[in-house]
Amino acid sequence: MKKNLYIQFETSFFDKIINKKRIEMIDLIKKNIKISKIKDLLDIGTTEDLSAGSSNIFCKMLDKIKIHKSISNQKIQNKRFKSCIKKSITSKFSKETVNTFKSDLVVSSATIEHVGSFKNQITKVANMISLSREYVVISTPNRFYPIELHTKLPLLHWLPKTFFRKILLFLNMKYFADEKNMNLLSKSDLKKILNIFSQKIDYKIYNIYFLGFVSNFLVICKIKKN
After folding, report:
1. Of 16, 67, 84, 97, which one's alpha carbon is 20 to 30 angstroms from that of 58?
2. 220, 206 Cβ separation under 8 angstroms
């Protein structure tokens, strides 16, 4: 079976690094959210490909939360999830779907950079907020880490995005050259998105470091009560 495109370029070495960084993020989540008070968790962008140890690790490590749900563009058959729907997080959600999947904690691990345009990324966050009762958690790579973690190319991703995509095409990395498959975010980009929802959430962005540089961001949002 062909590996999921999000991780097909991963090696065991890189997966170990990713796994370690995601465990670090989970520790931050546990420090900032009282997990014992969380009734249900909704995972956004769940993968059915479990060949990488880091796959769905937020769900695996937050296993004390009794009810897990999934919204993914893949068909998820993992029995961990009580409720699943195959649907893009940038789609429109009916009131019925929102009511079914609304959860205390909504998490998205390394997915926002794969939903396409900046407008789509805003829609994704808007939908996650609408699906949450208490918290939204988002992780994503830092665009300005010296090595681009999907392609493993150094520094070239610091160029304007149109130039970087042309280079990826030249290197026959067509999948990652397409904005709908990879659109990296800086901390400034993240803040622009999150600040749109300042009336609905309070948030904090945590820096995750690797080899002395910020490799990833973890965002923890608290839903404001009306």
Report:
1. 97
2. yes
- Give CA–CA dist 168/86, Å, rounded: 30
pLDDT band at 49 (very low <50, low <70, confident <90, very high): confident
**DSSP states of 119-165 as a string?**
HHHHHHHHHHHHTEEEEEEEEEEBTTSSB-TTT--BSGGGS-HHHHH
Whether the pLDDT of residue 128 is over 90: the answer is yes
Is residue 155 exposed (0-12), middle (13-18) or buried (19+ Cβ within 10 Å)?
exposed
Determine the Cα–Cα distance for residues 136 and 152; give it in Å rounded to an integer: 29
Q: Which residues are within 8 A (CB) of 195 and not within 5 positions of it... i.e. 6 or more apart? A: none
In b/e form, how buried is each residue of 183-217, taking b as 16+ CB within 10 angstroms?
A: bbbebebbeebbeebeebbebeebebebeeebbbb
CA atoms within 13 A on the CB side of 110: 19
Q: Name the pTM for this structure.
A: 0.92
- Convert the pLDDT of each residue in 65-111 to its tens digit: 999 999 999 999 999 999 999 999 999 999 999 999 999 999 999 99
Beta strands at 213-223 and 132-141: parallel, antiparallel or unpaired: antiparallel
- Distance between CA atoms of residues 49 and 2, nearest Å: 9
Of 45 and 1, the structure prediction assigns the larger pLDDT to 45
Give the rounded distance of the alpha carbon of 73 from its chain centre.
13
Give the type of residue at 97: T
Percent of the chain, pLDDT > 90? 86
Cα gap 141→163, rounded to integer Å: 20
